[in-house]
Please model this.
Amino acid sequence: MNKKLMWRRLLIVSAWVFGLGSLIALMSFIEIKKASVICKAVKVNIPGNQYFIDKEEVDQILQTSSHTLIGRKLENIYIQDLENKLRANPFIEFAKVYTEMDGILRVEVSQRQPILRIMNHYDMDFYVDQHGLKIPLSTNFTARVLVANGFIEELFANKVDSLHTKLAKDLYLTADFIRKDSLWDAQVAQIYVNKDREIELIPRVGNQRILIGDADSLQVKFKNLLAFYKKVLPQAGWDKYSMISVKYSGQVVGIKNENMKADSIKASKASALKPDAAKLTKDTSAQIN
Model:
């Protein structure tokens, strides 16, 4: 092997060993210095605009006000224990605690983000977060999210838990789809589960209900619904239908308003147009493919 190459490799190895030794020495110095540093203050950062948990509650969890942290040496503060205490709170999704050389204890807390509120068939009331987990209501803050009620049998044990029934999972998927689409997020006011355990949407504009059935093929169903909104309702009128069904992804079915049926039948009888009257009594009054 070339002597020049050998010396070069030796120098590289020596540099690595020296650098590693210096790093270890620096870390040891920091730890020694840290051992003598006293916690002077606790700084809490809670990003976001939903306040299920506030700084005062974090201080209570960490027992900041009782001076169990302030005045203690940093080496005697067990970071992992503090993080575990914070994560035990149902409204906290993530918590990070770390210390700085100036004696400041930093606390970063990320809250859970609810996207749906469910009122089940047994008068249990809870949120579902963006990950599909059930969380309790808060006394500090009420989230402005979609509300689902009706014949919902998903139970809640007042703790963070996953969804167990297919219907509840479909409600979560539906709410998640709606919130990510600015048009439907503005148009859908509420979710209702009927006695057949099918999902209905209650819009802000129009008196009809929108039957989507389940959460299968949501992209196609809402695309068809939008086509119905654009092609049929402007001509027929927003009050003509009591129900718009997109439960079958290949079609949209409009079910006429009962009051409009009665008026049409009465007018048809007065004109002695019995075939037209019979046609108007059918439930399916409009269909687009």
Q: What stands out?
A: Confidence is low (pLDDT under 50) at residues 262-286. Residues 206-289 form one domain. The radius of gyration is 31 Å.
